[in-house]
Write a structure and sequence with these properties.
There is one protein chain. By secondary structure, the protein is of the alpha/beta class. It folds into two domains: 132 residues, Rossmann fold (3-Layer(aba) Sandwich), CATH 3.40.50; 170 residues, 2-Layer Sandwich (Dihydrodipicolinate Reductase, domain 2). Helix content is 36%, strand content 22%. It has an eight-stranded mixed beta sheet with strand order 8-9-10-7-11-12-13-14. α5 packs parallel to α6. The protein is globular, with a radius of gyration of 20 Å. The protein starts with a helix and ends in an 8-residue tail after the last helix. The structure holds NADP nicotinamide-adenine-dinucleotide phosphate (NAP). The site of NADP nicotinamide-adenine-dinucleotide phosphate (NAP) has 19 residues, from loops.
């Protein structure tokens, strides 16, 4: 028998935590990718796990996390729970030798990140990736390449601000996880992650950072401005969930400028050269914005010891660690503390 026939094709088996719309989107991307099979669903409510998972083909439903991790038949878990729960759930996943896709922001402070890193060293076959969907898109990669061609960088402004319908709940005096310090919420931890990730991916580690938040009734930040200081320039981040912004994002060269319509959901990017001639950067924009990251993660999980995949993994992991540290330092600079801190 030839090697080709000996190779057995096997779908990646997926378990999920979280039954909200972001999981719908992830599952849609996984179906489009074609290498995935949803097998197991965890919810605090077993009936909800079944109602959610059955139409997607899942066959096992849990309302107990220990049971889910010990008996669930899956290779990879997607963790899409409120931020404050990620650390404990990811710990359990790694202890049970499951690969992990954790929603952003992965963890709430560098201590948690270090502990997860140590645990990964004890489980060397496990791969952990953070779902920072925007940095995996072909257009973002074009932007990175264009930036590398710019002789001088004099700064950038990156904006992502969208009014959240959940702020209506807050204004009505109701609870909302995303605006709750108990669940490690707030603007920086939510939409703020996108510009922070983009800045880290485009410019690397800044020398210092500071955050000026607009606080809301819940004690969390509703919007804010962060300034990242590098050797020769500043990067200003403008983000939030209690107002709408229609500003694009820009990187300033000397006479040239790079303009992106939206740092999190980029559909156009234009390079204006020194003569102000516009050059559109071209790349396919997926209808489902999670598709590029799912394709990238699939390649990693299917060949997790391949040298090229390991190189990607190392790059993503370092970026994830840097973003974790930046979010924490920004938050500390504004005096925003979560209950466990
Ligand atoms: N990448 C993206 O574009 C994107 C977009 C949106 C959100 N996110 C990230 O995805 C994660 C989830 O966000 P979300 O807005 O979906 O959160 P959410 O609606 O507050 O909660 C997500 C899921 O967690 C469970 N849950 C809710 N409240 C809980 C509680 N008090 N205790 C335990 N479990 C609870 C629920 O599942 P059960 O009821 O079934 O247990 C729910 O479906 C966050 O980390 C967020 O930053 C990413």
């Amino acid at each position: 028998m030839t090697e080709l026939f000996q190779e057995v094709w096997r779908m990646l088996k997926l378990g999920i935590i979280g039954t909200h719309w972001i999981t719908d989107q992830l599952l849609d991307a996984a179906v489009q990718n074609g290498h995935w099979q949803l097998t197991s669903v965890y919810s605090r409510d077993r009936q909800r796990a079944q109602d959610y998972g059955q139409p997607h083909g899942a066959t096992a439903f849990y309302d107990n996390l220990d049971d889910f991790f010990m008996n669930g038949d899956f290779d990879v878990v997607y963790v899409a729970s409120p931020n404050a729960l990620h650390y404990q759930q990811v710990r359990q996943a790694i202890e049970n030798d499951k690969h992990v896709i954790v929603e952003k922001p992965a963890f709430t402070n560098p201590d948690e990140f270090s502990q997860i890193e140590a645990l990964l060293q004890a489980h060397p076959a496990v791969r952990l990736v953070e779902a920072a969907r925007h940095i995996h898109t072909p257009l973002f990669k074009q932007v990175q390449a264009q930036l590398g061609q710019m002789a001088t960088i004099q700064g950038a402004t990156l904006t992502f601000m969208k009014y959240s319908s959940r702020y209506d709940q807050v204004l009505a005096g109701e609870q909302s996880n995303v605006f709750s310090l108990d669940f490690a919420g707030g603007a920086l931890q939510d939409l703020g992650v996108y510009p922070v990730y983009a800045a880290a991916a485009l410019f690397g580690e800044p020398n210092s950072v500071v955050y000026f938040p607009t606080m809301i009734e819940t004690g969390a930040d509703g919007k804010g401005v962060a300034i990242l200081t590098y050797d020769d320039f500043e990067v200003t981040l403008n983000f939030g969930k209690i107002a709408n912004s229609h500003l694009p994002s820009e990187v300033y060269g000397l006479k040239d400028t790079l303009v992106m319509d939206n740092i999190a959901d980029m559909t156009t990017a234009t390079y204006y050269d020194a003569e102000q001639t516009a050059h559109a950067l071209t790349a396919e924009v997926a209808e489902n914005s999670m598709r590029p990251e799912i394709d990238a993660f699939t390649a990693l999980f299917e060949a997790s010891n391949d040298l090229n995949q390991l190189k990607n993994y190392e790059t993503w992991f370092k970026l994830s660690r840097l973003v974790n540290s930046l979010l924490y330092t920004l938050r500390q600079s504004a005096g925003i503390k979560f209950p466990n801190e």
